[in-house]
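Lay summary. Proteins are chains of building blocks that fold into shapes, and those shapes determine what they do. In this project we predict the shape from the chain. Here is one chain we studied, written as its sequence of building blocks.
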Amino acid sequence: MTMLALVGLNSLSLAMLLFLLGAGLSITFGLMRVLNMAHGSFFLMGAYAGLAAWEKTSNFWVALLAGAVSTAVAGALLYGLFLRRFSQLEEFAQALLTFGFLLIIADGALIVWGGFVEVQPPAAFLRGSVHLGDLTYPKYRFFLIVVGLAIAALLWLFVGRTRLGAMVRAGVDDTEMAKGLGMNMSLVFLLVFALGSLLAGLAGALGAPYLGIYPGLDFETLVLAFAVVIVGGVGSIEGAFVGALLVAFVDTLTKTYVPELAWFSIYAPMAIVLAFRPWGLLGRR
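And here is the predicted shape, written in a compact code that computers can read:
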């Protein structure tokens, strides 16, 4: 029973990281139809930026802010200078361009940080464990669960209940009509892409004390992000949340009991969902 409780909590803490990562990709791809293959690179960039800020200041909150802001700026530059010139129909060109940035960022990180595994310590008050009866669980993973749930609620409110969220949805459904009504869709899409990148960077900074930082992390997280979006459905915050829960639970359960099937456990849910609901569990047709 204790083992199942640990698997459940581990799944939930991992799911919150995957939600932040997948929600950013779901926003940029599902709402804007921009295929960003460098999304995993923003996770890696946020982790390294947070680590650099931690080494300079020893302040955990400054590290989180550095990870989020640095990737928001990088995302805004990527979209404003390069991706904006491609239409929503040019997904192949978008994929090639952003995959090139993925390779550039990966090599740049390797040059600056080397091929070593780095681990950023959490804040002092998040170290140690909490005791729930017979169960002992790390405080930091509880912190990830709380932060992930709070951000999920804020994102749901932003997309579904705010004026900017309504503008984004209107621009996706009919960009020309939205422009005709006086909406500055270029600025709206720039801000939304920066938000998606910020979420990936924040996930990287939050995940650094949990997962570590190492070369290849960008590719691994990109696969997980696409798994979350495909399972949950593109353009849906609720779908990203459900997809993250499902992917994290299957991944954690498999690694605990059948570790040799770890990668299979990621692709199997995607294959099943694509076979029966190609638009995802909560996505739109």
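What the prediction tells us: The domain at 2-276 is CATH 1.10.3470 (ABC transporter involved in vitamin B12 uptake, BtuC).
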